[in-house]
Design brief:
The structure holds 3 protein chains of 3 kinds.
Chain A lengths: L1 H16 L2 H13 L9 H11 L11 H19 L14 H22 L3 H32 L4 H4 L6 H17 L18 H4 L5 H26 L7 H25 L8 H24 L1
Helix pairs in contact in A: 2-11, 3-10, 4-5, 4-10, 5-6, 6-8, 6-12, 8-10, 8-12, 10-11
Chain B lengths: L1 H18 L9 H18 L14 H27 L6 H19 L3 H19 L5 H34 L8 H7 L5 H19 L7 H8 L2 H28 L3 H25 L3 H20 L2 H33 L10 H4 L1 H14 L6 H15 L3 H26 L5 H9 L4 H19 L3 H14 L4
Helix pairs in contact in B: 1-2, 1-4, 2-3, 3-4, 3-10, 3-13, 3-19, 3-20, 4-5, 4-10, 5-6, 5-10, 6-8, 6-9, 7-10, 8-10, 9-12, 10-11, 10-12, 10-13, 11-12, 11-17, 12-13, 12-17, 13-15, 13-16, 13-19, 13-20, 15-17, 15-19, 16-17, 16-19
Chain C lengths: L1 H20 L3 H22 L5 H29 L11 H21 L11 H18 L3 H19 L8 H29 L13
Helix pairs in contact in C: 1-2, 1-4, 1-5, 2-3, 2-6, 3-7, 4-5, 5-6, 6-7
The chains are: A mainly alpha, B mainly alpha, C mainly alpha.
Chain lengths: 302, 480, 213
């Protein structure tokens, strides 16, 4: 019973807290730009509004157009439940769960791209193509990062893996994962979540034709993904294992806040990269993770 | 002390040339320094000075066996340079004369260097000092050649520094002091760390092999030799490559002392034969007679490498060949320079019938061509014969067969091009330029003298030289 | 001591990759300059007793590699009035991957080499090999003369790193001579760059194609 209650609490926690992050980012951007900006809870209002709206469907679409966002949302949420939260542990933990996490994220991406293709519009097909071609590079980076953690801890279970090294390896890993976070969540300098200029959009293109509850699922799923990556980044770099529960929760929350503010600052201070430079930056992120792997390997053997 | 003069004298001459006021009289510094240098090196050849094996710089048996040839070549080039710079009066020769002398000084330092660091500094210095010589003509093609020379040569020389350090580390790892003098390294013998010695050998062979122009690191050679004035080509082909060859010999001595001599010999043999093969193939295709000389130089470097790989007898023949190559190649470069000036062009498509316009130079060019392709009784014939005999002596008939096959193709390539240039009817354009640059005694005598030396080497090798070469072999192959 | 040294070498390796990934000449030159300064500081970390010769050579290295050569290159860039873009013939991503692969190979290779106990934990050998490889990639993969010079400098930096292994053994006279040669070399290259610019009206070495067989 207790286990069940804890699981529900965890689920509610992920669902409720996630939309805060985009709000914080927007607030930081507004603050740097000297504006008041939208309220922190703006995304909650948006989600509530979208949920009440009807759905506009093209005559071309199959049920996949609705199923895509739904499956993606469930997949991201599942991935979030696999992630352990410091000493509290994960909702579900087993040997090799890290692979499931990566696959669930990939499934979510596949479903979003699939739903985008369902519209039959060349424009959204282009967005999907861009999204997955960058994802190839970003996934290489994240898999390398996971490998680095595996090699360092000698385990393939998330609960024991997130036991970070101090020193150069952690710095490299943090930098690499931060770049991956930006890329995976379609943030500047990879993509601009605010743009509506057709030629430069990536992620936003894919969801242009969605409306109502499916769009709400997509937006909510995106915010969960952001929270997931921020948590993963903090846990991969800050050793939480030795702390007591309240202290760990405090450190984790502070870490996620720092990452979120960091994203906001990056977004305010950097311009979006030209398309042809994006692969270079992603390769750099990959290399950073690769060198973290190298440090873990060498450090483990010495 | 006298040995040190061999270095200081040309460098002092270079400094003097840099401040000499008159463009017209400055070139005379070249033959003056050349004569003094030849006198000094011949004196040291006949009366070898005692040397301490731990010294960084000494006129040791190896330097004694090689340096006088470079000195003689320099004198011939210097004598030729006076009339040459006279006809090139439109350009200031201050930098040319100064760096030409500096190259001689640094070459002498490199030949006598018994410390790998000093050796590296000298060869790098030669590489850099030769830069203004190569782009003396100031054409855009000359700058292109200079750029390639700098990049390829600089990289090669950087690799040899890395190799020197690796050898130093081999000594440190073996419990030595990391002293980079050849004597100290060789005395450590088998205590040197084996993997580091091998790494060092590969890097040093690649590095100094680039300077020698062994294929596949020879790419700078055709461009540099093709665009540089003839005297510069002669000094590069006969002097700079020689210092790199002595460097390879010195390193090989250390590697052999550490017990990896067989591996070193095998790599030298492979790279030498490969160079000969590459040059033979390119010689069959090239249409430019100055680039032809460059490929011929690649071939002769291959011959030296093959000789160095064949034990004591092979090294003896290779040292003999250094003399034959330096002197004969010098004659070829200088006569080619005469022909090039008179013809106003350098490819067999634009030049023919030069025996009518520059009969003496053409005759020297053809004779030199026969000498360099090892026709008896010139020096190169006997040295190459020595290498073939060494190959049979080392029970490597396959090597000897490949060696002779490459020589045959080289002969085809050279005769094809040389006779196309010398024979036939002169072109109208060449008749005009030929009158502007008539043959004078001063541009014919230096190559003729060099050719005479080559003939003398073949007909009656002076006893002092055979004794010097045997001394160098004894130094490189110490009997235990 | 060793940890700080490794940190500096790690910085140098990171700068290698930065140099491979940078698309503008000024940032390439800056990467080379910072790398040179990092290298120049290393003798202070290696030597327990700083004597005046070591200090002199180290300061000279910092001055030459960190200031003199970069200033020369920047001046050549400005006077030649060339575009700031690097113009790669091997793209940035492939060259980055080559550089990273080379770095990993260098680390793996260095583990197979026998090292003295005092060097076993240090990154000197892999860092040196990685820089040499990076230099080669830049030499081959960039077509502007100045970026090739930068590649050559990184190659030299790699050799310098290796030379630090021998710092107790090699007389500093040799190190000084090597530094002098390097400086003269860059001066000469600078002069040639200037002449090529005047002769070809460009510093793109792909235009140097008259001489070929």
């Amino acid at each position: 019973m207790i286990v069940f209650l804890e699981f529900v609490a965890r689920l509610v926690g992920w669902l409720v807290l996630a939309p805060l992050l985009p709000g914080i980012i927007n607030k930081v951007k507004a603050w740097v730009g000297g504006r008041r900006g939208p309220p922190v809870l703006q995304l909650y209002y948006d989600l509530a509004r979208l949920w009440q709206k009807g759905v506009v469907l093209s005559t071309l679409v199959s049920p996949g157009f609705i199923a895509g966002p739904a499956v993606a949302w469930v997949a991201v949420l599942g991935a979030a439940l696999l992630l352990p939260l410091g000493p509290v542990g994960a909702g579900l933990s087993f040997r090799g769960d890290v692979l499931l996490l990566i696959y669930l994220l990939a499934l979510a991406r596949f479903c979003t791209a699939w739903a985008a293709m369902e519209t039959g519009s060349a424009f959204e097909g282009m967005g999907a193509a861009r999204e997955v071609s960058y994802a190839v590079l970003a996934e290489a980076a994240i898999i390398t990062a996971v490998l680095a953690l595996c090699v360092h801890s000698g385990s393939v279970s998330l609960a024991t893996m997130l036991n970070p090294a101090a020193g150069a390896g952690a710095v490299l890993l943090a930098a690499g994962l931060f770049a991956v976070l930006l890329a995976e969540n379609c943030r500047v300098p990879f993509d601009d979540p605010n743009t509506h200029l057709e030629l430069t959009m990536i992620h936003e293109v894919m969801i242009l034709d969605h409306s109502g509850p499916p769009l709400a699922a997509i937006l909510h799923g995106a915010s969960i993904k952001l929270l997931l990556f921020a948590t993963l980044l903090v846990e991969a770099v800050v050793p939480l294992g030795g702390l007591s529960r309240p202290a760990a929760a405090g450190v984790l929350a502070a870490g996620v806040l720092v990452v979120t503010v960091g994203v906001g600052l990056v977004e305010s201070l950097l311009a979006r990269l030209a398309f042809r430079r994006v692969p270079l930056l992603l390769t750099t992120a990959f290399l950073l993770c690769l060198f973290a792997l190298l440090v873990a390997w060498k450090g483990g053997a010495a | 002390m006298k040995a040190l003069l061999l270095v200081l004298l040309p460098l002092a001459g270079a400094a003097l040339a840099a401040v000499w006021p008159s463009d017209r009289t400055r070139p005379w510094l070249l033959p003056v320094v050349g004569v003094l240098h030849v006198a000094l090196s011949l004196w040291l050849l006949f009366v070898p000075p005692p040397f301490a094996s731990t010294a960084w710089f000494a006129f040791d048996p190896l330097a004694r066996a090689v340096l006088p040839a470079v000195s003689l070549l320099f004198l011939a080039c210097a004598a030729y340079a006076v009339p040459y710079l006279g006809v090139r009066a439109e350009r200031s020769n201050r930098v040319f004369v100064a760096t030409f002398l500096a190259v001689l000084g640094l070459l002498s330092a490199g030949h006598g260097a018994r410390h790998l660091g000093l050796l590296w500094i000298a060869t790098e210095g030669v590489t850099l000092a030769a830069v203004p010589l190569i782009h003396f003509n100031g054409t855009s093609r000359a700058f292109e050649a200079t750029w390639k020379y700098l990049l390829v040569g600089g990289t090669g020389i950087a690799l040899s520094l890395l190799g020197s350090f690796a050898l130093g580390y081999a000594s440190l790892y073996g419990g030595g002091s990391g002293d980079l003098t050849v004597a100290a390294l060789a005395s450590q013998g088998a205590k040197l760390s084996h993997p580091w010695v091998l790494a060092a050998w590969v890097l040093l062979l690649a590095g100094y092999g680039t300077k020698m122009g062994l294929a596949p690191m020879h790419t700078w050679k055709p461009d540099a030799y093709g665009e540089a004035p003839g005297i510069v080509g002669a000094l590069l082909a006969g002097g700079v490559t020689t210092v790199a060859f002595t460097a390879v010999l010195r390193v090989r001595e250390v590697v052999a002392a550490s017990g990896s001599g067989a591996i070193a010999d095998r790599t030298l043999l492979a790279i030498g034969l490969f160079s000969m093969l590459v040059s033979a193939l390119f010689l069959l295709g090239t249409r430019d007679f100055k680039r032809m000389l460059a490929y011929s130089s690649v071939e002769h470097m291959g011959i030296l490498a093959v000789g160095a790989a064949l034990g004591a007898a092979g090294v003896y023949a290779a040292l003999f060949h250094v003399w034959g190559n330096s002197l004969t190649k010098g004659a070829l470069f200088l006569s080619a320079g005469n022909i090039r000036r008179a013809a106003g062009a350098r490819t067999m498509d634009e030049v023919s019938g030069m025996s009518a316009i520059t009969p003496h130079s053409a005759a020297i060019f053809i004779t030199g061509m026969f000498a360099v392709t090892a026709l008896p009784p010139f020096g190169p014939f006997f040295s190459e014969l020595g290498i073939v005999r060494a190959a049979f002596g080392a029970d490597r008939p396959g090597t000897a067969a490949m060696f002779l096959g490459c020589l045959l193709f080289v002969f085809f390539g050279l005769t094809r091009l040389v006779f196309a240039i010398v024979d036939g009817r002169p072109r109208a354009a060449s008749r005009v330029t030929g009158q502007r640059f008539p043959e004078t005694m001063s541009v014919i005598v230096p190559p003729l003298v060099l050719l005479g030396f080559s003939l003398w080497l073949g007909l009656a090798t002076p006893a002092v030289l055979t004794e010097a070469w045997a001394g160098a072999v004894a130094q490189l192959f110490p009997t235990p | 001591m060793n940890a700080y040294l490794n940190l500096l070498i790690g910085l140098a390796i990171g700068l290698n990759l930065l140099a491979l990934g940078s698309s503008r000449l000024p940032s390439l030159i800056n990467a080379v300059a910072v790398q040179g300064m990092a290298l120049g500081a290393m003798p202070f970390l290696l030597e327990e007793h700083i004597n005046w010769m070591v200090a002199l050579v180290a300061c000279a290295t910092v001055a030459v590699k960190g200031f003199v050569i970069p200033i020369l290159l920047r001046r050549a860039m400005r006077t030649a009035n060339i575009e700031r873009e690097v113009v790669p013939s091997i793209g940035y991503v492939p060259s980055l991957l080559l550089g990273a692969g080379g770095t990993i190979a260098a680390v793996a290779f260095a583990r197979t080499l026998p090292l003295l106990p005092e060097h076993a934990g240090s990154l000197l050998v892999p860092g040196s090999l990685a820089s040499v490889l990076t230099g080669f990639v830049l030499l081959i993969g960039r077509s502007k003369a100045i970026s090739q010079v930068c590649g050559y400098l990184i190659l030299e930096n790699g050799i310098y790193l290796f030379g630090l292994l021998l710092i107790h053994a090699t007389p500093l006279l040799v190190e000084a001579g090597i530094l002098l040669d390097l400086t003269v070399g860059v001066f000469v290259i600078g002069i040639i760059v200037d002449r090529i610019q005047r002769a070809f009206d460009s510093l793109d070495t792909r235009k140097l194609t008259v001489l070929r067989e």
